[in-house]
Sequence to fold (514 residues):
Amino acid sequence: MGIKTALPKIELYLYTSVLALALLWAGSWIIEASSENVNRKTFKETVKPGWHYFGRKMDVTDFEWAMWFTAFRNHILFALSGHVIFAKICSMISPKIGRNGFKNRSLIYMLYGCLTVLIIMGWTYISLILSHCIILYSVALIKRKWLCFVAGLTSLATFKMEPFNSWQAGFVTGTFELQDILFYGGCGFSIMRCMSFALENCEKKDGNYTFMDLIKYNFYLPFFFFGPIMTFDRFHVQANDPNLTRKPREMWNITIHALVHLGSILVVDVFLHYLYILTIPSDMKLVKELSDWSLAGLAYSNLVYDWVKSAVMFGVINTVSQLDHLDPPQPPKCITMLYVFAETHFDRGINDWLCKYVYDYIGGNHDGIFKELVATISTFAVTTLWLGPCELVYIWSFFNCFGLNFELWVAKLFALPPLSTIEGVMSEAMSRRIRGLFNAVNFWQIVLYNVLALNSLDFAKLVAKRLLFKGFPLSTLSVLFVTYCGIQLVKERERKLALLEEPEPSEPGKPKTD
Fold:
């Protein structure tokens, strides 16, 4: 079936109506549950005073969101604004600095980053980061990929496993509320960047990159504490590009994206005052009283919220880096647009890193079942270490690894007779509909496998039990039908994008100019 296969417009209108009504219905149940239970004892710790004039309280369960956009908003804005102003001033005078002109801007970014990290975290933290950088740079000079992986993953493990992480954290003196977040965030991302540097150095044919190249890459402030990870090969080229001219309407697009992020922050703030989607799953007694539709909507909305949070946080950082003439990793793909495990991720930077150095490197073209199995196991082994080994992460990794391989197994099965023969007889529109049914089932696998990492294993088990067993057949089939409607609308969007990207055919008798 081709991606450009169309469905009748009346059918798409029907899907749109069903999806809109279902979302409104599920949302009304969640709003009702939030309003009626706002004074529950279990809500006191995570539902705090919010809009006093409207009489609404706010769900403050997510520390990351509160950190970025309430409690420490001014601190983060001050640091990023200082970087923008400092970078702008230096970009204006950098042609006069040394003989390399604009290429010195990466050095200027590094100096501001090091100074900011030094002021926030102290000299012992800088020394700790530099010690790991020195070790991994020394390993990089040997130019053996397997050795770079061993050294890098060992360094990463020292920040993810006891007693090594506590021992290293003890070097950082002083205490403040953000210390742990900044410590482990900066250290973890630094190790991943050092590994990217080492692996790219192995690919360098003539000589080696310098230690200063690594330091300039690692201490670029917008990416330092919170990511996203930009692989060294891309950063090195872009940060040292002397051409600082912008494309037509580039600043306009950056401004629009910044306004979209601001609008998203306001929308999320409204939702957190009316939909306590993060607090409700922690009260299992209340969750058991909810309807099947409320549970399905709650699970789905938790994943959407996590995507929005990631998109906004990375979007703010990306806006700053775009002002520095960098092309950072894009925000993650919306969970609503996902129906295959191969495209599922919540951090595109980490996803790009894993694909480049592990998944694609081992899996090749991803056609072989055994190679794909080895590639996915290796990828999720590294991901498990990155997230921090624990029971919940082990379960999450196992199910997502299984889902990725299961997709390949099903694709291989449907490529064989008689299934391939049956599909060949069908019309392309009917083939799209049948594939949409399988995609709907796959979508809920993605939701269930990932909601356990965002909420709890008990909540994920309850959602699965209610939708698959207790709610069968009415709730199960109705939820799948609504999901199928959404999948077809996503496929329609993909079809239109494919048509837009298709090159226009040249006129008969007219020579090509490409």
The longest strand covers residues 47-51.
